[in-house]
Design goal:
- The strands form five sheets. The chain has an eight-stranded mixed sheet with strand order 8-20-14-9-13-12-10-11.
- The protein is globular, with a radius of gyration of 25 Å.
- By secondary structure, the protein is α+β, with helices and mostly antiparallel strands.
- A hairpin with a 2-residue loop joins strand 6 (153-154) and strand 7 (157-158).
- 25% of the residues lie in helices and 24% in strands.
- The chain starts with a helix and ends in a 5-residue tail after the last strand.
- The protein is built from nine helices and 20 strands.
- The protein has helices at 5-15, 32-38, 93-100, 108-128, 140-144, 159-162, 177-186, 201-214, 217-225; strands at 23-24, 42-43, 47-51, 75-79, 83-92, 153-154, 157-158, 167-169, 196-199, 229-231, 234-236, 248-253, 256-260, 269-272, 277-281, 290-291, 299-300, 312-314, 325-338, 345-347.
Length: 352
Amino acid sequence: MALDPTSVARIYSASTEKLVAKTIDTVLNASPVTLRILGSQRPWKAKFPVKYQVGISGTSFDGLDKFSTALSDSFEVMTFQPTGYEINVSLSQMEVDLVKAQNNPIDIIAREMESRAEDMIDALGTLLHTLQTGKTFLSLINACDNETLGGATYGGLDRSTYGLSGIYTASSAAMTIALLRTKYANCTHGAEKPDIIVTSKTGWARYEALVITTTSYGVIQYSNTGYPQMTRSGIAPSVQALKGDKGFDVLWFSGCPIVVDEKCSANYLYMLNLKHLAFYGLQSTDPEYKSVKFGGGSIESVHTDVPKVTGFAFSGFNKPIDQYGKVGHIILMGNLIADSPRHQGIEVSYTS
């Protein structure tokens, strides 16, 4: 933790007056689906029973025909393991001392905590958009795959044998309403339909072009009020309705919001049902690890809308025996699990 002389000037210039301006994040990219998933965690559970085949058929009868007594075997259990991710928060105590010696200093401890928490959210967003194996959290691709992208098993079971394939398609054609309709229909079973569609800026622009060419009402409405906005907790109908929350632009397909996710690959589009897809967080029982609430107002960033949730915890600061500073660790434990992959869809190759 050697003190960098250039950091002294950085601290002096940043702390001359308290919050003359917030620190502006110029590096992290927005991932609304990451905020939505991590901000709506469910308590950890490992086992998810599934019905994977129809049982013994019934029979017609008349008179005194004997009934079937064969035993149906229609069930199996997906089993998942929790895993973890950590990020460190390290501070030079000399830097803290320098700041506290100024008039109206900013709280660089709080700012560093906020900064590292946002770095962690950013890293998790990248993980959630990448096929994972081993001890890394499972991803959206793991949930939506049908073995094509590399996920042959899910929850310890063979996907094809136990009906655990997501709705994967790869189309070399341009995005059309008909193609989206087919994908949406394939992800719909009974009353259960996709409740969020996630794509890249490129994919969102392609769909916006379709909307503009097929409806004039939407264009007039959006020019007056702005596009609807999605927050972690739901959809706000206009920019004015956000009331201080962070928001992301939303278009609609069959009543389902379509949002831009900067972590999403350019030609990817996900149709997700978040009733059947969630991050199951494992809560730390170590009394020295405290629950974390993200966002403190020190930094203007894209990752400041995650509340205090189950799987996150902070170790508190420890002081190294041979350094004048302090180090702590933010951890997240659990896993991203789809209890019904057939409700999750992915398209990987729209061309225009």
